[in-house]
């Protein structure tokens, strides 16, 4: 045990040694204890100090909490990469894990024993022989790997290596590993406390170094100088990039405290930017890149002008989620439609493809809202004039069917409610100003549902429009004349029915 060494306890909690020696509060003054600062602060109760019976504090190291004094016998310093690989990919004549294809036995509720069978163990081994160069993709997550060990020629075939959550303690160790694996192209060292790198990795093309204790953008640029893909999420980065990289195509800086994306323009050939979970990032204004994919979920986007800024980047794929401030007052379907309407190049939003039919319906829906509420932030966009021209005939038809009413009766909308479950039909005349919440309660009473979902279609083959905002009037959604609204049970209703059936 030495100060600085990475260790783990019997249940896999990882930490860094900060002190080795006697502790004043120990019953045995000669006993050796190890002061460990744990990666998970909830694991420890100390801050590097103890208080003697006479009230005097004795400090051995400084930390913000999350530390413990542990007996050396309770800690493990791990093993080498070569040892871990030899333990995982054993030779054909090694003892079987499941002799006779029986791995063990399980006890059933009735007190009977059932065999747990493992079939094909030898067949799997035959295609995982290190010495024959069969192992190209290696995964050793949380395997206690701390160093390379004695390199072997059999490691030369490894192209992908996953070393997440091990005991690697410096980038020098990572460099040694990469140098010993000449075929290595993809490496994942996330969850290891490595600090700031000073040298790029040889021949590696894709690196994941999430939550590795990187603190400066200079270190990120050092890594990025020869990579095509770099993930450095969950590292608290200070400063801003200045050198960039000519090779980098994908950069993941999620949850790094990013405030301003404009300096990322130094990565001139970047095609994908993942910047989610940066709560203070309000827009991508000033970023002069053309990006195929952007991720901005759980950020601080609080104005729809931020989405208009994205249009300059011409993204084809966007992951935005529904938890940015700008979408808090909108239902999921509204949020999706208004984003699609603003971004003409978008082909996929939040993992779902945007079809031509959905784009047409989204742009029409946006226009209905923009014309009804022209002064709202969501209605103001540079694309508004283009969309009005594109759908001139549609808008003229809408205007003719929704002319200002002259009498109270002419403001009533004849609504046809259809239950998706049983096909029951009900008709009601309601003012266009009726809130969705009231219609939902009415449908719940008619069809004996709890909180039903409701949707309608402008045309028979159109994308359904969800009535998913209880605070909005029906007129907000641009209901056609004499609309048919489909009513279905919500997930809550389904869960309640399942619980009743179980009872």
TrEMBL record:
InterPro entries, sorted: CAP-Gly_dom_sf, CAP-Gly_domain, LRR_dom_sf, Ubiquitin-like_domsf
Annotated protein name in UniProt: CAP-Gly domain-containing protein
Membrane recorded as keyword: no
Keywords carried by this UniProt record: Chaperone, Leucine-rich repeat, Repeat
Residue ranges of domain CAP-Gly in the record: 24-71
Keyword field contains Mitochondrion: no
PANTHER family recorded: CILIA- AND FLAGELLA-ASSOCIATED PROTEIN 410-RELATED, LEUCINE RICH REPEAT PROTEIN
């Amino acid at each position: 045990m030495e100060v600085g060494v990475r260790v783990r306890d019997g249940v896999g909690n990882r930490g860094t040694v900060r002190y080795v020696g006697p502790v004043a509060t120990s019953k045995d003054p000669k006993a050796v204890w190890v002061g460990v600062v744990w990666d998970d602060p909830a694991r420890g109760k100390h801050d590097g100090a103890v208080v003697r019976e006479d009230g005097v504090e004795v400090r051995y190291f400084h930390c913000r909490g999350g530390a413990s004094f542990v007996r050396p016998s309770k800690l493990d310093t791990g093993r080498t990469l070569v040892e871990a690989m030899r333990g995982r990919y054993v030779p054909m004549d090694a003892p079987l894990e499941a002799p006779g294809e029986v791995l063990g036995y399980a006890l059933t509720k009735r007190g009977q024993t059932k065999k747990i069978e493992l079939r094909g163990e030898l067949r799997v081994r035959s295609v995982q022989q290190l010495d024959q160069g069969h192992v190209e993709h290696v995964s050793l997550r949380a395997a206690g790997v701390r160093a390379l060990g004695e390199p072997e020629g059999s490691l030369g075939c490894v192209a992908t290596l996953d070393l997440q959550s091990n005991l690697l303690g410096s980038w020098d160790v990572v460099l040694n590993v990469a140098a010993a694996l000449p075929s290595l192209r993809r490496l994942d060292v996330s969850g290891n406390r490595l600090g700031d790198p000073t040298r790029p990795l040889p021949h590696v093309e894709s690196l994941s170094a999430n939550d590795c204790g990187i603190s400066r953008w200079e270190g990120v640029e050092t890594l990025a100088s020869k990579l095509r893909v770099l993930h450095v999420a969950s590292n608290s980065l200070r400063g801003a990039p200045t050198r960039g990289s000519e090779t980098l195509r994908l950069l993941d800086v999620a949850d790094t405290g990013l405030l301003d994306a404009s300096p990322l323009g130094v990565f001139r050939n970047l095609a994908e930017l993942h910047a989610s979970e940066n709560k203070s990032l309000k827009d991508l204004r000033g970023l002069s890149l053309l990006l195929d994919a952007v991720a901005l979920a759980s950020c601080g986007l609080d104005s729809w002008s931020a989405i208009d800024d994205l249009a300059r980047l011409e993204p084809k794929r966007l992951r935005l989620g529904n938890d940015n401030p700008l979408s808090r007052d909108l239902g999921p379907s509204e949020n999706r439609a208004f984003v699609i309407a603003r971004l003409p190049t978008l082909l996929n939003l939040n993992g779902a493809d945007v079809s031509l039919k959905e784009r047409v319906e989204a742009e029409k829906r946006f226009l209905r809202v923009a014309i009804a509420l022209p002064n709202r932030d969501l209605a103001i966009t540079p694309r508004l004039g283009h969309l009005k021209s594109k759908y001139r005939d549609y808008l003229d038809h809408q205007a003719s069917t929704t002319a200002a009413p002259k009498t109270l009766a002419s403001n009533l909308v004849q609504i046809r409610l259809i239950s998706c479950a049983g096909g029951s039909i009900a008709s009601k005349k309601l003012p266009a100003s009726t809130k969705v919440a009231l219609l939902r309660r009415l449908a719940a009473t008619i069809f004996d549902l709890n909180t039903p979902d409701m949707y309608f279609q402008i045309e028979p083959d159109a994308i359904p429009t969800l009535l998913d905002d209880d605070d909005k009037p029906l007129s907000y959604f641009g209901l056609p004349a004499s609309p048919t609204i489909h009513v279905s049970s919500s997930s809550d209703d389904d869960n309640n029915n399942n619980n009743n059936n179980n009872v």
